[in-house]
Write a structure and sequence with these properties.
The chain is α+β, with helices and mostly antiparallel strands and 494 residues long. Helix content is 29%, strand content 23%. The protein folds into three domains: 120 residues, 3-Layer(aba) Sandwich (D-Maltodextrin-Binding Protein, domain 2), CATH 3.40.190; 112 residues, Alpha-Beta Complex (Dipeptide-binding Protein, domain 1), CATH 3.90.76.10; 201 residues, Dipeptide-binding Protein, Domain 3 (Dipeptide-binding Protein, domain 3, Roll). Strands 1, 8, 9, 10, 11, 12, 13, 14, 15, 16 and 17 form an eleven-stranded mixed beta sheet that branches. It is globular.
Length: 494
C-alpha cells in the first residue's frame, strides 16, 4: 500500500466520520400532543392547545412567562409606572419584525390591545384588558397604556397568550396562517395530523437552536405510548397515559419530567341550570366526590387534591379540601333537603383529555352511589368549546383550567359555569385596586373561601405536568406556569 493510498483512506475515514457527526447533530424535533388546536389565533379562543403550539414560539407579548412562572420582558424591553399607578409606558425593542417582514411597532401594540378590549372582542380572556382606558402611541418604539384604576397585575396580564401582539395586515388570515414575531415561523398545518414550524432566521432576540419543529397530534393514549416508545416522536408534552411513566423512567433512552401546572381540574356545574342553581345540590355533588380515588384511578397518583380554584404551589393558597370532604351520607342528606331524595339525572359532557374521560367514568360511579345519574357524552375539543364553553348546554363537565392565577373568571356571570355574584365581583374589584401584597393576599384568600362556601364547582385536583422526552433533549420546561410548549431554548445534547 502506497503512502498516497493511506492518505486517501484516512481522508475518506475522516470524511465519513464528519458526515456521521453532522447527521447526529439533530436540529429538528417532533413533539407529540394529545389535543389539536381548533385554529391558530390565541387572541380569539379559549383552547389551551393553541398556546401549547404557538406561545413564545410564534407569538410574543409585551411580557412573557418564564419557566418558573416569573414575568420577564418580552417585546417590551422595559416599562415605567406613573406615581399614581394609572399609566404604564412600555419601551419596545427596536428592529423587531413580523414573520412577513413588516415592522412591529407601537401601532401594532395599540391595535392588539384595542382589539382585545373592544366591545365585539372574541378574546377568551377579555377581562384581562377591562381596566385599560386608553392605549396611545408615543413614538414607534414607545406605547403608553392608561388604566381606569391602578392594577399592579398588568405586566402579569400582558404575559398571557391572549395578549400577544398581532398585526392588522395579517389578522384576517391569522386562524390558518399565524404571523408573529417569535423565534419560529409557522410553516404548514395538516389538519388532523401535524403543524410544522421553522426557525425564524431574522429573529430579533436570541435565535432558536432548532431549525424545525413538528407538533404531531395523537389523541389516543395507547398510540401516544407506542409513538414515544418507537421514538417516532422525541417529546410528548402532557403525556396522556400516566400508567406508562414508570416504564419510560426505567428506560435509559428516555427522561420523564414531572412538574406542576396552573391546571385546576374541576367538575364544573352549570349554576343557572336546575338543579345546580340550588346550593345544597352543589354541596351534595362536592361531598359525593372522592378526590383521591379520581387521582389514583384516572391519573395513577399524579395530582394534588384541591378544595378551591387555586394552585397549591401558590403562597396564597388555602387548603379547603376538608370543607368538601368525601361524605356520601352527607351528600344524600343534602339532596333530600334540596327536594331530591330520589336523586336526579343530568348530563356529563367530557372533552378528550384523559383526566376528563377517565375521571368522568369514576365520577359517574361516585355520583350514582348518592342517587345522581349521569348521561355521559364524549365530545371532541371543538365540540366542547362550542356546546359547553360557549353554548352553556350542560349540567356537569370536567375540565382543567390551565390559565395562571385565573380565579377572576368567577366574576364573570356569563362564563360557562355562570356564577359571577355581586359579592365576588366586588372582591375582584378590590383585588384590582390593591397594590399592597399583604392586602392582595387577604383578598385572594377571601375569594377562595367564597367560591368554596358557594360550592360553585366540585374542585378535584391540580393537574401535574407530565412529559416524556428523549434523554438527549435539553431545555424543556418541567413545570407549566402557562399552557405552553416553549421550544425557544430547546436543543439536542451532543
Amino acid at each position: 500500500m502506497t503512502v498516497a493510498s493511506i492518505h486517501r483512506g484516512l481522508f475518506s475515514l475522516l470524511a465519513l466520520t464528519a458526515t456521521m457527526s453532522m447527521a447526529e447533530a439533530k436540529t429538528d424535533i417532533i413533539v407529540g400532543m394529545q389535543l389539536e388546536p381548533p385554529h391558530l389565533d390565541p387572541t380569539s379562543a379559549a383552547a389551551g392547545a393553541i398556546d401549547s403550539v404557538l406561545y413564545a414560539n410564534v407569538f410574543e407579548g409585551l411580557t412573557r412567562f418564564a419557566a418558573d412562572g416569573s414575568i420577564l420582558p418580552g417585546l417590551a424591553q422595559s416599562w415605567d409606572i406613573s406615581a399614581d399607578g394609572l399609566t404604564y409606558t412600555f419601551k419596545l425593542h427596536p428592529g423587531v419584525k413580523f414573520h412577513d417582514g413588516t415592522d412591529m411597532t407601537a401601532e401594532d401594540v395599540k391595535f392588539s390591545l384595542d382589539r382585545a378590549r373592544a366591545a365585539d372582542s372574541q378574546n377568551a380572556q377579555k377581562a384581562l384588558f377591562a381596566g385599560i382606558a386608553d392605549v396611545a402611541v408615543v413614538d414607534p418604539t414607545t406605547v403608553k397604556v392608561t388604566l381606569s384604576a391602578p392594577n399592579g397585575a398588568l405586566p402579569f396580564n400582558l404575559a398571557w397568550g391572549d395578549a400577544v401582539i398581532v398585526a392588522p395586515e395579517s389578522i384576517e388570515g391569522i386562524k390558518q396562517n399565524p404571523i408573529g414575531t417569535g423565534a419560529f415561523k409557522f410553516d404548514a398545518w395538516v389538519q388532523g395530523d401535524k403543524i410544522d414550524l421553522v426557525k425564524n432566521a431574522a429573529y430579533w432576540g436570541t435565535p432558536a437552536k432548532l431549525d424545525k419543529v413538528t407538533f404531531k397530534f395523537i389523541s389516543d393514549p395507547t398510540a401516544a405510548f407506542a409513538s414515544v416508545m418507537a421514538e417516532d416522536v422525541h417529546v410528548f408534552a402532557g403525556f396522556p397515559a400516566p400508567e406508562n411513566l414508570a416504564q419510560f423512567a426505567a428506560d435509559p433512552r428516555f427522561q420523564v419530567l414531572v412538574g406542576s401546572t396552573e391546571g385546576e381540574t374541576i367538575l364544573a356545574m352549570n349554576n343557572k341550570q336546575p338543579p345546580f342553581d340550588n346550593l345544597k345540590v352543589r354541596q351534595a355533588v362536592s361531598h359525593a366526590i372522592d378526590r383521591q380515588a379520581i387521582i389514583d384511578g384516572a391519573m395513577f397518583g399524579y395530582g394534588t387534591p384541591i378544595g378551591t380554584h387555586f394552585a397549591p404551589h401558590n403562597p396564597d393558597y388555602l387548603d379547603l379540601t376538608a370543607q368538601s370532604a368525601f361524605d356520601p351520607a352527607k351528600a344524600k342528606a343534602l339532596l333530600a333537603e334540596a327536594g331530591f331524595a330520589d336523586g336526579f339525572t343530568t348530563t356529563l359532557k367530557l372533552p378528550p383529555p384523559s383526566y376528563a374521560r377517565r375521571g368522568g367514568e369514576i365520577i359517574a360511579a361516585q355520583l350514582r352511589e348518592v342517587g345522581i345519574q349521569t348521561e355521559i357524552t364524549n365530545l371532541e375539543w371543538a365540540q366542547w368549546l362550542e356546546e359547553v364553553f360557549k353554548g352553556k348546554n350542560f349540567g356537569l363537565t370536567i375540565v382543567s383550567h390551565t390559565e395562571p392565577a385565573d380565579i377572576n373568571i368567577y366574576a364573570r356571570e356569563d362564563y360557562y359555569f355562570q356564577y359571577g355574584t355581586p359579592a365576588f365581583k366586588a372582591l375582584m374589584a378590590d383585588l384590582n385596586n390593591a397594590t399592597d401584597p399583604a392586602k392582595r393576599s387577604d383578598i385572594l384568600k377571601a375569594a377562595q373561601k367564597m367560591i368554596a362556601d358557594d360550592a360553585v364547582n366540585a374542585y378535584l385536583f391540580q393537574l401535574a405536568a407530565l412529559s416524556v422526552a428523549n434523554a438527549k433533549v435539553q431545555g424543556l420546561w418541567v413545570n407549566a406556569p402557562t399552557q405552553a410548549t416553549d421550544l425557544t431554548a430547546v436543543s439536542w445534547a451532543e
